[in-house]
Amino acid sequence: MPVIVNLDVMLARRKVRSKELAEAIGITESNLSLLKSGKVKGVRFSTLAAICRYLDCQPGDILAYDASDDDLRAASED
């Protein structure tokens, strides 16, 4: 997947547990776990904003993009 989720890294840097973050931003631990693993197709901006506000970070601290030629082929097939 071209978008890499580094939420677990930011949680470790801030010394915040997943359960604490999930409760603070109002999502289930299960959904947070799916987000951390990158097994979601999208994330709401409001959820991303809540995560960034709680962890005092920027979206780029959580999400990264790894370009590859496979991404271009997959996008043209959609």
TrEMBL record:
InterPro entries, alphabetically?
Cro/C1-type_HTH, Lambda_DNA-bd_dom_sf
Annotated signal sequence range:
none
The record places domain HTH cro/C1-type at: 19-62
Taxonomically, the superkingdom here is: Bacteria
Q: Which Gene Ontology terms cover its molecular function?
A: DNA binding
Per its record, how is this protein called by name? Helix-turn-helix transcriptional regulator
Q: Which organism is it from?
A: Sphingomonas baiyangensis
The upper taxonomy is:
Bacteria, Pseudomonadati, Pseudomonadota, Alphaproteobacteria, Sphingomonadales
